Amino acid sequence: MGRSTPLSSLFGKSPFKPLQQHMRQVVECANEIPNILTALNAGDSDKISEIKSRIDDLEGDADTTKDQLRAHLPKSLFMPVDRRDLLELLSLQDKIAGVSQDIASLIVDRKMDVPVGMGEPLVELSKSGATVCDKAAEIIETLDELVEMGFSGRESTRVLALVDELGKIEKENRIKASELTRSLFAQEDKLSPVSVMLWYQIINWLGDLSESAEKVGDRLRLLLAR
Question: Per residue in 92-109, pLDDT tens?
Answer without folding.
Answer: 999 999 999 999 999 999
